[in-house]
């Protein structure tokens, strides 16, 4: 890929202010792969730990199985809060040094988890892991925004999200294989290996993507100005809120999945990774389709249609749960859930791109703040769904239908009630 970096100028500035910088980095496919791996570190750090919940419960004598969900949610809290730091720092210092520092923090948290003497220590280590992994979430989005815009950006983000979503298909299986080596500690070893691969590949192949003219001073005032600019952008706030609500659906499912498929409801045992992977596969397939179709239809029409259908299927999911007293046949439950995961994948990547589209001049800080907001909102909503687990699938269905309906209302507010209409770029 030899095209120059094409950053969007700050609001009110002429397009000719920033001189394009020739691109000396990897080709398109490798670029997508590297950025996807940055995000995959986050995904595998959640999902490959799920099969280890019973072993961890036994090791630390955790009385309530619902408390094991904290291993997911405290990670997401650390992951969410830290995002607000990485963006402004990367806007001042560049993307490369900040990402590498974040990966070092992640590695430190992983090592602490491996030697945890108590459940509280393990939770603290998971927070540190989340703080480090946040760098990949913020900077992957900022790096894409540094190089692409409009439907092209949405297509790239969809390809990255496809790889990111394929990881959960294999993550529990990887966790299961690590457990077979004799201990839940080996699950964290796999996380450490992935982080090392990401560090080496990024260091070797990815140049700095932040345009020199767009470096911002590292100061509270500059950061506050960028945050205010973000908050004043109706499109950014609206789509970020909708994305956070849909993230809550995913987090509620992830937090409850081990209990639903393994110990609390369907008792699949070693087949749990297969059920989990089947649902994740639906998301990966939809994201690949989105990457191809979004260039033709635009982000808004496609994501609005996907969200609307998601709400309808969410209501059907509740109906199926009620019809079978909260315990529908496994094949039926998996089928309805996979359809909803398929549909949600037409909304989430596009919502992320739409939220950042007007904020190219402050991509790092905007990605940081919006990532913080959507992650915390998603983690809290997911925590409520997960803690409501009562041995049935009803909390998941009600959560999907409720959060999906709220997200649709927020999108309608964002677009002044004009849904399904594409703009110049979206």
Q: What can you see in these coordinates?
A:
The chain is mainly alpha-helical. It has one domain: MFS general substrate transporter like domains (Growth Hormone, Chain: A), CATH 1.20.1250. The protein is 74% helix and 0% strand. The protein is built from 15 helices and no strands. The N terminus is likely disordered.
Major pleated sheet? none
Query: What spatial form do the alpha-carbon principal axes imply?
Result: globular
What Rg, in angstroms, do the CA atoms define? 21 Å
What name goes with the CATH superfamily? Answer: MFS general substrate transporter like domains
The first-level CATH class is given as Mainly Alpha
Report the end-to-end length measured between terminal Cα atoms: 24 Å
Q: What is the fold-level CATH name, i.e. the topology?
A: Growth Hormone, Chain: A
Q: Supply the CATH architecture.
A: Up-down Bundle
The DSSP helix count reads: 15
Secondary-structure element pattern, one letter each? HHHHHHHHHHHHHHH
Secondary structure: helix percent: over 70%
Quickly count the domains.
Answer: 1
Mean pLDDT score, rounded? 85
Task: Assign the structural class, choosing from mainly alpha, mainly beta, alpha/beta, alpha+beta, or little secondary structure.
Answer: mainly alpha
What does the secondary structure layout of this molecule look like, with pairings?
Elements: H1 28-47, H2 53-60, H3 70-93, H4 95-114, H5 119-147, H6 150-180, H7 185-205, H8 220-231, H9 234-263, H10 272-297, H11 299-323, H12 330-344, H13 348-356, H14 363-387, H15 394-414
Main location: membrane
GO cellular component, one term: plasma membrane
Pfam family, one: MFS_1
């Amino acid at each position: 890929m030899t095209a120059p970096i094409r950053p969007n100028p700050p609001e009110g500035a002429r397009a000719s202010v920033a001189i394009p910088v020739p691109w000396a980095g990897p080709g398109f496919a490798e670029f997508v792969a590297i950025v996807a791996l940055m995000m995959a570190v986050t995904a595998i750090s959640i999902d490959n730990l799920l099969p280890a919940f019973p072993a961890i419960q036994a090791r630390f004598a955790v009385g309530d199985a619902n408390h094991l969900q904290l291993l997911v949610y405290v990670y997401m809290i650390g992951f969410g809060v830290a995002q607000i730091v990485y963006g402004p720092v990367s806007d001042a210092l560049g993307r490369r040094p900040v990402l590498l520092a974040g990966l070092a923090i992640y590695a430190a948290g992983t090592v602490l988890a491996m030697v945890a003497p108590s459940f509280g220590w393990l939770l603290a280590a998971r927070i540190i892991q989340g703080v480090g992994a946040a760098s990949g979430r913020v900077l992957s989005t900022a790096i894409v925004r540094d190089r692409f815009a409009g439907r092209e950006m949405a297509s790239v983000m969809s390809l990255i999200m496809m790889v990111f979503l394929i990881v959960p298909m294999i993550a529990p299986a990887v966790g299961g294989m690590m457990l077979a080596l004799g201990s839940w500690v080996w699950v964290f070893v796999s996380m450490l290996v992935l982080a090392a691969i990401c560090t080496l590949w990024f260091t070797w192949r990815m140049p700095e993507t932040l345009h020199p003219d767009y470096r911002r001073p590292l100061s509270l005032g500059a950061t506050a100005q960028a945050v205010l600019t973000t908050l004043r952008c109706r499109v950014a706030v609206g789509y970020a809120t909708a994305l956070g609500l849909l993230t809550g659906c995913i987090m509620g499912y992830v937090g409850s999945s081990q209990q639903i498929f393994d110990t609390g409801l369907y008792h699949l045992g070693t087949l749990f990774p297969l059920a989990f992977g089947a649902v994740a596969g639906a998301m990966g397939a939809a994201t690949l389709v989105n990457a191809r179709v979004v260039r033709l239809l635009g982000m808004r029409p496609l994501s609005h249609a996907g969200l609307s259908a998601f709400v309808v299927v969410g209501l059907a999911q509740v109906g199926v749960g009620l019809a079978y007293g909260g315990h529908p046949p496994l094949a039926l439950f998996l089928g309805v859930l996979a359809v909803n995961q398929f549909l949600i994948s037409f909304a989430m990547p596009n919502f992320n791109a739409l939220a950042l589209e007007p904020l190219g001049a402050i991509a790092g800080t905007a990605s940081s703040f919006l990532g913080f907001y959507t992650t915390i909102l998603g983690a809290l909503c997911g925590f409520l769904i997960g803690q409501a687990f009562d041995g049935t699938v009803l909390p998941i269905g009600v959560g999907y239908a409720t959060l999906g309906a709220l997200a649709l209302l927020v999108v309608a507010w964002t677009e002044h009630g004009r849904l399904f209409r594409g703009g110049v770029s979206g």
